[in-house]
Specification:
It is built from eleven helices and no strands. Helix 3 packs antiparallel against helix 11, helix 4 crosses helix 7 and helix 5 packs antiparallel against helix 11.
């Protein structure tokens, strides 16, 4: 699939299509793919509610769209004014990776052991939602923003090295980061749609859905913890 997208990228000179292909290439590259898988795991925790699953997928997409669009607008404005964005790019890339790993570890720990900690201020329970406000929908939004800002070398090249320079020259350049963002979150959105409107029929074959979800919640929390450790180690090395 990567080879096909690269061929398509080389053969097009339409900015919107190029931005969309760059987003897809970002979505299937190793680092963003890991975060998308983690997001799918979190979103699918509400397997017994179609509306919640799909809404969380939309909120995750909105979070990525907000992050990429806002950052893109700032960078495009700076470039069009003739300034250099290299230091800003370096700052975002370095701190994004540094923050992502510990954040995922903390989220995983809260999901595993949050029910043992009394946090009346947030009304938090490790089996319900994270203490980020707005329930799981709000958490999905913040996860989208957090994951978007965690640039690895590949996603950084696509966004800073290819998308932003092209957007700065394009007439409708401010819209291209939005197209890019939608493409990066497309796998999560499609999976959440599938879970919301297809997996519901499969749940009939699960003897005890609540017991299944209890174990599934632990699996998702462990996934957050493992991916967080992975990002932390790779950042420090």
């Amino acid at each position: 699939m990567t080879e096909y997208l690269n061929m398509w990228l080389d053969s097009t000179n339409i900015p919107v299509l190029t931005a969309f292909i760059l987003g897809l290439l970002t979505a299937i590259s190793p680092c963003p793919l890991a975060t998308n898988i983690t997001a799918v795991g979190y979103i699918s925790k509400d397997i017994d509610s179609r509306r919640k699953v799909f809404l969380q997928g939309l909120m995750y997409t909105l979070g990525r769209a907000f992050a990429y669009t806002a950052l893109g607008a700032v960078l495009i404005y700076i470039i069009r004014k003739g300034a250099d964005t290299f230091e800003l790019q370096q700052f975002i890339s370095e701190w994004g990776e540094l923050i992502l790993g510990p954040s995922l570890v903390l989220i995983g720990l809260f999901m595993l052991f949050g029910h043992l900690v009394h946090l009346p201020k947030f009304g938090f329970s490790g089996t319900s939602h994270l203490p980020l406000g707005g329930g799981r929908e709000g958490t999905s939004l913040l996860l989208g923003i957090l994951f978007a800002m965690a640039f690895c070398p590949t996603s950084g090249l696509f966004f800073f090295g290819m998308l932003i320079p092209m957007s700065a020259e394009a007439t409708a350049g401010y819209l291209l980061p939005l197209v890019f963002a939608l493409a990066t979150s497309l796998p999560v959105l499609l999976v959440s749609w599938f879970i919301a409107f297809s997996i519901q029929n499969l749940s009939r074959f699960i003897g005890n859905l609540q017991a299944f979800q209890k174990w599934f919640n632990c699996i998702v929390a462990t996934l957050f913890f493992a991916v967080g450790i992975y990002y932390t180690i790779t950042t420090l090395l």
